[in-house]
Amino acid sequence: MVIGVDIGGTNIRAGLIENGVVIHQNQCALQNKDSMDATLYQLIETIKPLTTQAVEGIGIGVPSVVDIEQGVVYDVANIPAWKRLELKRIVQERLHLPVKINNDVNCFTLGEYHYGVAKGIGSLIGVTIGTGMGAGLILNHQLYMGHNCGAGEIGLLPYLNKTLEEYVGSQFFMDRMQKSAEEIAKEAIGGDHEAIRLWEEFGLHVGEALKIMLYAYDPEVVVLGGSISKAYPLFKKSMEESMRSFAYSNTLQKVRVLASEHSHIALLGAASLIQFDMNVLAKGTRI
Prior knowledge:
This protein is α/β, with parallel strands linked by helices. It folds into 2 domains: 2-106 and 264-283, ATPase, nucleotide binding domain (Nucleotidyltransferase, domain 5, 2-Layer Sandwich); 121-259, ATPase, nucleotide binding domain (Nucleotidyltransferase, domain 5), CATH 3.30.420.40. The chain is 36% helix and 24% strand. The chain contains 9 helices and 15 strands. It has a 5-stranded mixed beta sheet with strand order 3-2-1-4-8. β1 and β2 form a beta hairpin. α3 (104-115) crosses α9, α5 packs across α6 (193-217) and α6 (193-217) packs across α7 (232-243). The protein is globular. 45% of the residues are buried. Belongs to the ROK (NagC/XylR) family. It comes from Olivibacter oleidegradans. This is ROK family protein. InterPro entries: ATPase_NBD, ROK.
């Protein structure tokens, strides 16, 4: 058994996983995010009830760049207290289990590679769309992280008059209608024309983002995840229309864009940090 942990900007989720199945799960809403002690306490107390003698280790996904070897996280998104935190050392000392840490979108992508709709696909991009936007890259069956575990941060690229994730993320809806994406999705499903048009416009921006990824990485599959991906049917058509201007039509015909189907995929991906050797993903070698 292993424990997978997904640290978001607003919540911490932890799951006890056996044979690719989440058998127990804990969750808490992050509070006092300006306090390192308070946030670490919440993290430990969320994980601790899941620890047993059968647990082999803990994998943690964090929305930040990560020193993989040392387990240090830097400038964690939406947790101001975590500017530089020796997270691996702290969790190991408090829970007495091996710990591995990686970027949260990398963990999502690993989850899709091992257990999800892109299982075993050797050229894969996992894209999460929620508060922000990021991508995880599997190239030739290997997780590509970059020198500082910062590869795939395409949401921060300049786009129009802002950054890409301000158009492909929850901020887009707040800026346009001062409502959450979830609220506007409900209105669109109910037939509200303004809400429908806004989702169509959103899809055009998603399509532009995907074209950037196709030019840069030429993947076989792109998997969309994150909270906003649940509204995929509302923006799929306009996204595909936007992608039609991609320069290489043969590439566009071959690439598949899929929506994630597993609610626990980020937890499974985090757990896979313990279960699988990151350097030999193609063989699925267990440690």
